[in-house]
Design brief:
It contains eight helices and 16 strands. The protein has 256 residues and is an alpha/beta fold. The strands form five sheets. It has an eight-stranded mixed β-sheet with strand order 5-8-2-1-11-15-16-14, sandwiched between helices. A two-stranded antiparallel ribbon has the order 3-4. Strands 6-7 form a two-stranded antiparallel sheet. The protein is globular.
Length: 256
């Protein structure tokens, strides 16, 4: 079985040109087939503040009204996505920028409003594995933004960590798939003050650190997606900086 690496890049990396260039240069060193998934929440926040539009978050997830969705579409599927694709092309990596509506790559449904109305937020229904396989086999790298859509053609904002996990889970039926969550930190820390790195994070440790508030906000859905992904066939899941993972020096591995 061929190997596939799915990388999700976020945090300060997509907001900082120098960090993003360094990340993408390191990305070229990864051998074999690969898919890149990106968010860009920090850059979206800058745009929302600039336009005096409120930022609403709950448990690390964004509440997305129509205006926020319009800005997210510009930032995620537009600016960040095309900047990444252009840079990869300059590095001689043929790539294709996507939102979920493209080739029905990521179909979602709007999140239930029974407990809380998250607005235009999508939960993944299906991944077009055949499409991803087609372009991967033609040596094209998919670059997936966190904009998706539903069966009625409504665009939605979907958590990029979830998209990366769902793509990885589905592609694990075709390839031996690893999922790497990459950002500016070395991994998940046991102590937020001293930044003592956790080499291997299991469910019991995760629950303990979450109850103490050490793992919080956006890290919660990220780690939840990790444990769900392991149950669905992903061979290995790592969290950390891309450079640390590539050099096999510093990262956190999620284990059952």
């Amino acid at each position: 079985m061929d190997k596939l690496t799915v990388l999700k890049v976020g945090g300060a990396v997509t907001q900082n040109k120098l960090l993003l260039d360094k990340f993408l240069n390191n990305f070229t060193k990864i051998k074999g087939k690969k898919i890149l998934v990106h968010g860009g929440g920090r850059e979206l926040d800058v745009l929302l503040k600039k336009n005096n539009h409120p930022i609403k978050m709950l448990n690390g997830r964004r509440i997305t009204d129509k205006k926020t969705l319009d800005y997210a579409l510009m930032v995620y599927a537009g600016k960040i996505n095309k900047e990444i694709v252009a840079k990869l092309q300059s590095l001689k990596l043929n790539s294709l920028g996507l939102c979920g509506a493209d080739a029905n790559s990521v179909l979602c449904e709007i999140r239930s409003k029974e407990e809380l109305d998250y607005g235009y937020v999508g939960d993944v229904v299906s991944i077009n594995s055949d499409f991803f396989k087609l372009i991967l086999e033609n040596n094209i790298i998919p670059v997936c933004s966190s904009i998706t859509y539903d069966k009625d053609g409504v665009l939605l904002n979907t958590n990029a960590d979830t998209i990366a996990s769902e793509i990885s889970s589905n592609m694990s039926k075709i390839y031996e798939t690893q999922l790497w969550y990459c950002f500016e930190e070395k991994g998940v820390y046991q102590d937020s003050m001293q930044k003592k790195l956790i080499d291997k994070l299991d469910m019991a440790t995760y629950k303990s650190l979450k109850s103490k508030g050490i793992i919080s906000k956006g890290m919660i859905p990220k780690v939840n997606n990790c444990f769900n992904g392991l149950k669905k066939g992903i061979s290995k899941i790592l969290i950390g900086s891309l450079n640390g993972i590539i050099e096999n020096k510093t990262y956190t591995e999620i284990i059952p």
